[in-house]
Amino acid sequence: MGLKGMEIEMDIEEMIFGGKAVGEYEGQRVVTSYGIVGQRVQAKIKRVRQTHLEANTLQVIDKSPVEIEEACPHSGTCGGCSLQGVSYQWQVESKNEQVKALFSERKLVPSIWHKPVKSPRIEGYRNKMEFSFGNQERGGQLTLGMHQRGRRYDVVDTAHCNLVDEDFRHIRTATVTFFRERQVQPYHKISHNGTLRHLVVRKAAFTSEIMVNLVTANAPELLVNEWKERLLSLELGGDLASILWTVNNQVADTVQSDHIQCLYGKESIRESLLGLNFTITPFSFFQTNSYAAECLYEIATSFLSETDQNVYDLYCGLGTITQLMARRASKVTGIELVTEAVQQARKDAQLNGFENCSFIAGDVKETLDQLPGKPDALILDPPRAGVHHKAMADLLAMKPEKMIYISCNPRTLVDNLEQATAAGWHIESAQCVDLFPNTPHVECVVLMSKKEAN
């Protein structure tokens, strides 16, 4: 009998960055979908490789000795937070060691590896949550929450999610109750029947302004206005500043807009970071943990000095880092692909009183020739895919004095760092900043220079 499809039991001996875990079965290395060191799990082998077996974890048989805290009641089924129940100190140290291992595999050796930075908040820290409508059981009642672990279409009703605060939970519960009462069906990803797709809730950590965005395939306007009134009747700790309705008739299961309508308030909310104000629009990117983002940005800006006259901030989004860097550098230019984000960044920079900020809308690979002169420093904060190889080569060829790389995906970070060190760059320092407690994810900020190592 072949190994593929076999169900096995094994002890988790190692964790790999990104949430996967490693055990052993009859002398063979097994990489499974999730697990915590010290657990005994049941797993199903899905693929046989030359060097290892790939598996999906089916269930945890015995807990790990490091699981010492009470987990969220959804932890057994929800696919969101695989490190719940583990002490936070252990989480941070484990993620730091996993990122170090990625560096070590590529022989990347920073002069200084700083201690990891903890999030100021461990629970209730998210300023955005994208809930999905669905059914936890086929033919069952409407659910609203997160996708079930290991199952692409089933949705767990996450009424008690610990990553968000009470206002998120009130809005989620009021919404799913409203549509259950009216027997409105979720949008089915295969048949494309049904109406309800997503509920996106944002709450600014430091201003408490709340935005709620209901995403549907189609819905009578009278119905969404009734839903709006239900939300306005809620007693919330924050300020419900924006209620939006987005129509998305695309096949892809992503939050996007064919049409958006403001049902109440305004089409944006305001957040404050390190004394600056930023405007968050429905589809703009903003770090999901404002508390830890302040720690991350303070580290990044500390790498600049008054001698840095010309700084480029690539993948700048709403210009958050651009404006914070403008406090220290003489001139900062941000580049961002999303035109809407660039337009908003320009407005916010003006409102924050910066005259040394400018922004270019376009792809980094295609706009480098528009940049004004040789940079003293480059700031990189790319999407999870990292910097395209050709774009990275062009950036390195610009020969700035220093490069500050902020990454939400250390796996692609080390790809770019390997390319940089091969071109003669030196990694001065690296540091993990935990923006995602109770999950396997972490941010990493790296300082590089063209100078020779001492």
TrEMBL record:
A Pfam family it matches: tRNA_U5-meth_tr
Binding site for S-adenosyl-L-methionine: Q287, Y315, E336, D381
Designated gene of the protein: rlmD
GO terms, molecular function: methyltransferase activity
Protein name stated in the entry: 23S rRNA (Uracil(1939)-C(5))-methyltransferase RlmD
Organism name: Anoxynatronum sibiricum
Family indicated by similarity: Belongs to the class I-like SAM-binding methyltransferase superfamily. RNA M5U methyltransferase family.
Coiled-coil blocks: none
Superkingdom of the organism of origin: Bacteria
